[in-house]
Write a structure and sequence with these properties.
The complex is a heterodimer of chains A (466) and B (590).
Chain A: H1 7-10, E1 14-16, E2 20-22, E3 25-29, E4 38-43, E5 49-58, E6 61-66, E7 79-86, E8 88-91, E9 99-101, E10 117-120, E11 131-132, E12 137-139, H2 143-148, E13 151-152, E14 159-161, H3 167-177, E15 179-180, E16 187-194, H4 198-210, E17 217-222, H5 230-247, E18 252-258, H6 260-273, H7 287-295, E19 299-301, E20 307-315, H8 324-332, E21 335-338, H9 341-345, E22 358-359, H10 362-365, H11 375-399, H12 406-423, H13 433-444, H14 457-464
Helix pairs in contact in A: 3-4, 7-8, 11-12, 11-13, 12-13
Chain B: E1 5-13, E2 16-20, E3 29-33, E4 38-46, E5 49-54, E6 66-73, E7 75-78, E8 86-87, H1 94-101, E9 120-124, E10 131-133, E11 137-142, E12 148-152, E13 158-164, E14 168-170, E15 175-180, E16 186-190, E17 193-196, E18 205-206, H2 218-223, E19 231-235, H3 242-252, E20 257-263, H4 267-276, E21 293-298, H5 304-322, E22 327-333, H6 335-348, H7 362-370, E23 374-377, E24 383-392, H8 402-410, E25 413-414, H9 419-423, E26 436-437, H10 440-451, H11 455-479, H12 486-503, H13 517-539, H14 544-549, H15 551-562, H16 569-588
Helix pairs in contact in B: 5-6, 7-8, 11-12, 11-13, 12-13, 12-15, 13-16, 15-16
Chain lengths: 466, 590
């Protein structure tokens, strides 16, 4: 029992020697009372400092994880110092245009940022009553997104992709082209890379450079050869900056996080080392809550001008959408954009699968006064028709195309037109929403008018007949 | 908040804290941890140590921090001021929290659940000298235009009233009556009282489930109806429309009160309800829907242990209004997140896991929760009910996982959401093959009275067709539709019509968003008539194309959008037109 409970006084104490090292975790016994999630400094025998946080604290033992990894540490010479406060980073607007590691330290050779704002990277839950329901349409210039899976400012819309699919190209294209029509506002991109390869990070830097927006981008890189534990901190650091920019600096922030699959793998790694009871596929039971802590930091807040729009990218292991990572993400995010390998194989870019993709916030951001009055019904009709195309294609593969009814042939034509004219576009093609909708009507004209159950007579007269 | 220290922190592992040096504490006691007074609940006692689950983020809590006991179980405050409010999982008003801590929820905030300042106009109905027992009405408070809040003698109290205040304005903490119990002890009664959330409130007994909870959703009311007091499970993968279906039911069902529990779901969904409900008008009372709604929001990023409690907080409030003789509908979205919270806490307590890491007591907990629903005779002899509609989010949309399977054992109505329907944007995506309702037989009499004797045979016939269609579709998949005779192709045709014109319902369309019972029955009858007459025609040699080209066909397809709930004669006209067109066709082929 300690003689005093003042942790601030005791926090300067340094403990020489740790009792156990396992993976990224160190175990220290016989310490003063140490707070849960307290920041620690771990000094190795050569005098280099690494950071970590306390994962578990009890009267006899403290378990901490070291972000930079534990390689080179030994039991007797490792020194541990507890800070008495949670992990914070200093944040400022000057971080735009710079490159950092996952803990917010600059790695572009420049000086460390100076700021008076120290923020806890774990953030806090937004009070649901303070949220503003997002309803501002973001034009991405990509037809299949704008027309059928509309992105809304403040939304969290992940891209479910697979290895070898062009998710990076699409994310870069969205970051370049995204705009709110009729308003000039300050915008910023916060980019968090977790466990991605160097050339992927390079691709994004180049893409931002070419479009001349690099000074509005902050990059947080924890690449594939960095310690896996740092990945757990990377999105939190990035989102902390995003929150500062959105809610203290009134900016509209687009956060791109890639690749969430690597983040979840790191989480599983740490969980296993700690000996926690696994749930599905070895992932910890709190994977859902942990992902929610990240994804729910997006949104808009009443009385604040800024917003955070979140675009996480994840590669579905083995293209399996029911794998825990895409599955749990889908339960938290407001829709998903799903890539289809088959479409990619047929040379269609972006290979966005029409049916499983969804934007939940679309309904309130489209239609008269926002996009165009025919948008809701047109989108609904395109979905319905394309869904029938899939049935017809299945049927045709069994009985042969010749055996199909004339109507079904119409649908096959529609499917082809839809994929080639509506979905397919160039990497640098920026279509306005009117162009997108007009193409939509154009492809619908391959169908006879009495097949269009979801469109009103007035709309048929005004748009279909054009 | 008192300063009774019951022990000291020994070990911290996320929201689970081990406490040592316990002197006196009881199970499920409300406790405060550390100098910041984080709210927790004592969930395990062993000799001089205990386990506490903390409802707030435990960052910074250290060993030897003090733990304070409240001397009572985790309870909710029940009284005027709840309706229209949004609470977190342990009944803290989120709007008040926002006034104190801004846009983010800080820790250790203590706000009373019911406003202590606000005065309510209390009209007593009991008087001095009355012998009263629990559940009896002391008087009323008009809480909102919609809700007449009856102030009851709290459970487990009885005696003689030795004083009752006159009609007037009182706060929830002012004494409104004094009760002398049998042992001559005096007990002050207030507009509010407390009740522990994990204990069900007493009633006289259960009543049969024979009144439907009308939801205005055609696929529900016509195919899989539920009763007031029912238990329903809505399972579905992400994007199949669980939340949409629950919100539609919350908006239009004919319950007196709605308790909407957002348990571990998205923050924006709660915001959606908060912005939309006040604008929507309850078709029965003509007042804003928010005036009959209580929201409990514990979004996915809020502390996981409060998620576990939120379900109980909600159902306890529902029972309280049931005891006043009201019909309450509880929407729990989603019970899977609640089960996952159980799993997470169980894991942190290092309990032995059963299936998929869930604790072995999962089915017991699910059963306890759903058994609190039902149609009851209240202690006051009135009829009240609690209906529970629980969403389940099965991982990967696979219904064989433990939460769906265990839930199915304790509910009697199952609205399975189908991924393929949702992909085709067929909403509500309730599968007509996998869903079932065991309440149908109890409700037949009511439907026959309100919708006519044709309703049941019509419904049976269409269900039969839907099942036939599945088998025919399998044939079509192999050989194409042309191989089928017209009589069978007509079945496919009618089913497509039924799906488009009846089952599909657009929640965003002003007219289609809900349908009254007579409209539903009439629409069903028109489609069944088209089938009955049409199939006879086909026997007489009329072709499928002729049947489809009838002008009335387009009217039938669009009737859900074009004919409003108060213009039912227009449906009669369509029916007459249909009969006429069939007659003409028949005459041609005679």
């Amino acid at each position: 029992m300690p003689e005093t409970n003042d942790r601030a006084l005791m926090s300067g104490r340094e403990y020489i020697g740790v009792d156990k090292i396992d993976g990224a975790l160190v175990f220290v016994t016989k310490t003063h009372p140490v707070g849960f999630r307290e920041l620690i400094e771990c000094i190795d025998k050569d005098g280099n400092t690494r950071l970590g946080i306390v994962l578990e604290s009890s009267t006899n033992c403290v378990v901490a994880q070291i972000f930079e990894g534990t390689s080179g540490l030994n039991l007797p010479d490792t020194r541990i110092r507890f800070s008495g406060k949670p992990l914070t980073i200093s944040i400022s607007k000057d971080m735009l245009g710079r490159v950092f590691n996952g803990l917010g330290k600059p790695i572009d050779g420049g000086p460390a940022q100076r700021s008076d704002v120290e923020l806890n990277v774990n953030g806090m839950a937004i009070n649901p009553t303070a949220r503003e329901y997002p309803r501002d349409f973001i034009q991405t210039g990509i037809s299949v997104i704008d027309g059928m899976n509309t992105l809304i400012r403040g939304q969290k819309l992940p891209i479910f992709s697979g290895n070898g699919l062009p998710h990076n190209e699409l994310a870069a294209q969205i970051a370049r082209q995204a705009k709110i029509r009729g308003s000039e506002t300050e915008f910023a991109v916060v980019f968090a890379a977790m466990g991605v390869k160097h050339d992927v990070a390079q691709f994004f830097v180049k893409s931002f450079e070419e479009s001349g927006v690099l000074e509005n981008v902050a990059l947080f890189l924890s690449l594939a050869d960095d310690p896996s534990i740092e990945r757990l901190q990377t999105p939190r650091t990035a989102l902390t900056l995003a929150e500062h920019l959105a809610f203290n600096e009134d900016m509209h922030v687009l956060v791109v996080m890639t690749d969430m699959t690597n983040y979840c793998e790191s989480l599983r790694e740490i969980s296993t080392i700690r000996g926690e009871i696994p749930s599905r596929k070895g992932y910890p039971g709190y994977l859902y809550s942990d992902l929610a802590e990240l994804y729910e930091r997006s949104g808009m807040i009443k009385g604040y001008k800024g917003s955070i729009t979140l675009l996480p990218i994840l590669t579905m292991p083995n293209d399996d959408i029911s794998h825990p990572i895409p599955d749990l993400s889908g339960y938290i995010t407001e829709g998903q954009i799903v890539f289809e390998r088959d479409m990619n194989g047929r040379g269609i870019y972006p290979p966005i699968a029409g049916l499983p993709s969804l934007s939940r916030l679309m309904k309130d951001g489209i239609g008269e006064g926002m996009t165009r009055e025919d948008h809701p019904h047109l989108a609904s009709q395109l979905f319905a028709a394309y869904s029938y195309v899939k049935d017809v294609r299945n049927l045709a593969s069994v009985i042969g195309e010749e055996e199909l009814t004339p109507l079904d042939h119409n649908y096959l034509d529609f499917g082809k037109e839809f994929e080639q004219k509506f979905v397919s576009q160039r990497h640098d093609e920026d279509r306005s929403i009117e162009q997108t909708l007009d193409i939509g009507w154009e492809v619908l004209r391959t169908l006879p008018v009495d097949e269009l159950h979801r469109i009103t007579d007035e709309e048929i007269e005004k748009f279909y007949g054009k | 908040m008192n300063d009774r220290i019951i022990g000291q922190v020994k070990r911290i592992n996320g929201p689970v804290i081990e406490v040592m040096g316990i002197t006196d504490a009881e199970m499920f006691e409300l406790v405060w941890v550390g100098k910041e007074h984080l709210i927790g609940e004592l969930i395990k006692l062993e000799q001089d140590s205990a386990v506490v689950q903390v409802y707030e983020d435990t960052t910074g809590i250290a060993p030897y921090d003090p733990v304070y006991g409240a001397g009572m179980q985790l309870s909710v405050e029940l009284g005027p001021g709840m309706v229209g409010t949004i609470y977190d999982g342990i009944q803290r008003p989120l709007e008040k929290i926002r006034d104190i801590s801004g846009i983010f929820i800080k820790r250790g905030i203590s706000v009373p659940s019911l406003d202590r300042e606000k005065k309510w106009h209390f009209v007593p109905s009991a008087k001095e000298g009355d012998t009263v027992s629990s559940g009896m009405v002391l008087g009323t408070v008009q809480e909102t235009e919609n809700v007449l809040h009856k102030i009851l003698v709290p459970p487990n109290e009885k005696g003689i009233l030795i004083s009752v205040v006159p009609e007037g304005d009182y706060t929830v903490e002012e004494v409104i009556a004094v009760l002398e119990k049998e042992d001559s002890q005096k007990k002050d009664l207030f507009l509010m009282h407390r009740w522990p959330i994990r204990k069900h409130r007493p009633t006289k007994g259960r009543l049969p489930l024979d009144i439907p909870l009308v939801t205005g959703q055609r696929v529900i009311d016509t195919l899989f109806p539920i009763a007031k007091g029912a238990t329903v499970c809505i399972p579905g993968g992400f994007g199949t429309g669980k939340t949409m279906t629950q919100q539609a039911v919350a908006k239009w069902c004919d319950a007196d009160l709605i308790i909407y529990i957002g348990c571990g779901e998205r923050g924006n969904e709660i915001t959606d309800v908060l912005t939309e409900f006040p604008k929507l008008i309850d078709p029965r009372s003509g007042r804003s829907l928010m005036e009959r709604t209580i929201l409990i929001a514990n979004t996915s990023n809020m502390p996981v242990s409060a998620r576990e409690a939120s379900i109980y907080t909600g159902i306890t409030m529902a029972e309280y209004f049931r005891d006043q003789g009201y019909h309450v509908a509880v929407m729990a979205d989603s019970t899977s997140r609640w089960a996952e919270a159980l799993r997470e806490l169980s894991g942190r307590m290092e309990e032995m896991p059963a299936e998929e890491g869930f604790p072995a007591y999962l089915p017991t907990r699910i059963a306890e929760f759903y058994e609190r629903a039902g149609s009851m005779e209240t202690l006051n002899g009135e009829r009240g009910s609690v209906s529970v509609i629980g969403a389940v989010s099965p991982p990967g949309g696979d219904f064989s996982e433990p939460v769906t399977q265990h839930t199915k054992r304790f509910i009697r109505c199952f609205w399975a959401l189908d991924r393929n329907l949702a992909n085709a944007r067929h909403y509500p995506a309730i599968s007509w093959l996998e869903s079932y309702s065991e309440y149908l037989s109890g409700l037949e009499a009511w439907w026959a009275e309100k919708a006519g004797s044709e309703w049941l045979p019509d419904r049976t016939e269409i269900m039969e067709l839907l099942h036939k269609e599945v088998r025919l579709q399998q044939v079509v998949k192999l050989v194409g539709p042309d191989a089928l005779p017209d009589s069978q192709r007509f079945i496919l045709e009618v089913c497509t019509l039924f799906k488009n014109a009846f089952l599909q319902q657009n929640a965003y369309d002003k007219i289609d968003t809900y349908s009254v019972v007579p409209k539903q029955a009439k629409m069903l009858h028109i489609i069944v008539t088209y089938w009955r007459r049409g199939s006879e025609m086909i026997k007489k040699g009329v072709t499928l194309v002729q049947l489809r080209k009838m002008k009335v066909y387009q009217d039938i397809i669009k009737m859900k959008f074009t004919i409003s709930n108060d213009d039912l004669q227009a449906l009669d006209k369509i029916e007459a037109y249909l009969e006429r067109s069939m007659d003409q066709l028949e005459a041609l082929h005679a």
